[in-house]
Specification:
Elements (H helix, E strand, L loop, with lengths): L1 E7 L3 H12 L5 E4 L26 H5 L2 H7 L3 E3 L3 E7 L2 E6 L4 E9 L3 E3 L15 E2 L2 H4 L7 E5 L3 H13 L2 E5 L9 H9 L3 E4 L2 E9 L2 E9 L4 E4 L3 E4 L3 E3 L34 E3 L11 H23 L1
Parallel strand pairs: 1-2, 1-6, 2-3, 6-17, 8-15, 9-10, 9-15, 10-11
Antiparallel strand pairs: 4-5, 5-6, 7-16, 12-13, 13-14
The chain binds flavin-adenine dinucleotide (FAD) and NADP nicotinamide-adenine-dinucleotide phosphate (NAP).
The site of flavin-adenine dinucleotide has 35 residues, from helix 1, helix 5 and helix 7.
Length: about 325
């Protein structure tokens, strides 16, 4: 059986595409998501800018009901890692890590992005042993202790605010003296007594022993070294686009991409390849928000419905 639509990725973009394609009349729609549906927002301890989501709500709270809502309209979730998407004539092939394949008339891809490594010494060696990219997952291990946060964007500052409620002190280590974050968030951070800003400072090395991390050494713009003694270091230095599934056997991409590896789409989320739509954080000019990822999923789904209708009738 050839699917009407294959959705790759089950974050806000993929789930919304799933809702709109199934509810909009496509018959066989499968969402290929390698983990639990919900996407990267599941790692966020708070979300305050999704319309209607008021009060103290975590990313997990927000996403909890989305998969069930889609499944009611017939969306099927196949929990598998997609390794490659190819197209021959009018049919797409979804290649999966378990060796199996699925075929589809249209594809909506929303594989999002992944946390980037900051690149200081010891980061890889102590990853999972004191170095983390998820405050919601690992913050509790440092209850009542001091931790360091590396980065100066929205994620770093919001997660520092979360950690400051659990930990005795949070050092925010940032390489510049201004932040790449919403002004409201910066103001909130500045008001928290147990957050110390360590600005104009580059992380040099995380050090420790067999028990885990013992501290992080940072260097400021005058080349002065400061030793910050903490058992936990959280890095939030941005994300890389997950575009691997679009790489073909000969190393080229299935559709046009920009230099940052983001998928080039038009206002309808259509890529340069007929029947392929790209959504959410992985597309060009993405605002990287849950609400916009969801919006992309809806737009792409409506286009996919029209495309499949024309292809088959
Ligand atoms: P993602 O959410 O990244 O979902 C992609 C999905 O694809 C994942 O579930 C992944 O498992 C799956 N996948 C990837 N590759 C494959 C593959 N090969 N095969 C199968 N499945 C695959 N946005 C806001 O609007 N407000 C906030 O407050 C906010 N806070 C944030 C806090 C944090 C800590 C982070 C990290 C992000 C935050 N964001 C916030 C940004 C928001 O989470 C993203 O913009 C949004 O999740 C993007 O949705 P997406 O569907 O494009 O991708
Ligand atoms: P980001 O905005 O790209 O910020 C990354 C931060 O890490 C920057 O401050 C950057 O410094 C720093 N950095 C990058 N590489 C580094 C390195 N090697 N060593 C040390 N520091 C490094 O990433 P993000 O904060 O994860 O946010 C990603 C996107 O999601 C953004 O568009 C953001 O707005 C969005 N988001 C939104 C919300 C929200 O709306 N509430 C919450 C979270 C995320 P420089 O500033 O010097 O470049």
């Amino acid at each position: 059986m050839i699917l009407d639509c294959a959705i790759i990725g089950g974050g806000p973009a993929g789930l919304t595409a799933g809702l709109y394609t199934t509810r909009g009349g496509l018959e066989n729609v499968v969402m290929f998501e390698k983990g639990m549906p919900g996407g990267q927002i599941m790692n966020s301890s708070e979300i305050e800018n999704y319309p209607g989501a008021t009060g103290e709500i975590s990313g997990m709270d927000l996403m909890m009901t989305w998969p069930e809502q889609c499944q009611r309209f017939g969306l099927v979730h196949e929990m598998v890692n997609v390794t490659r998407v190819t197209k021959k004539d009018d049919t797409f092939t979804i290649h999966k890590e378990d060796g199996s394949i699925s075929e589809a008339h249209s594809v909506i891809i929303g594989t999002g992005s992944s946390p980037r490594r900051a690149g200081f010494r010891g980061e890889d060696g102590f990853f999972g042993k004191g170095v983390s990219t998820c405050a919601t997952c690992d913050g509790f291990f440092y209850k009542g202790k001091e931790v360091a946060v590396v980065g100066g964007g929205d994620t770093a500052l919001e997660e520092a605010l979360y950690l400051a409620k659990i930990c005795s002190k949070v050092y925010i280590i940032h390489r510049r003296d201004t932040f790449r974050s919403a002004p409201n968030t910066i103001e909130r951070v500045k008001k928290v007594e147990n957050i110390e800003l360590v600005l104009d400072s580059v992380s040099d090395e995380v050090y420790g022993d067999s028990t885990g991390v013992l501290g992080i050494r940072v260097k400021n713009k005058n080349d002065e070294i400061r030793d910050i003694v903490v058992p936990g270091v959280f890095t939030f230095v941005g994300n890389d686009v997950n575009n691997e599934t679009l790489i073909q056997e000969d190393g080229t991409f299935l559709c046009d991409m920009n230099e940052q590896g983001q998928v080039i789409v038009d206002i309808s989320m259509a890529t340069s390849l007929d029947g392929l739509y790209a959504t959410g954080d992985m597309r060009i000019s993405a605002p990287k928000q849950v609400v916009s990822a969801a919006g992309d999923g809806a737009v792409a789904a409506l286009q996919a419905i029209a495309y499949v209708d024309e292809l088959l009738n």
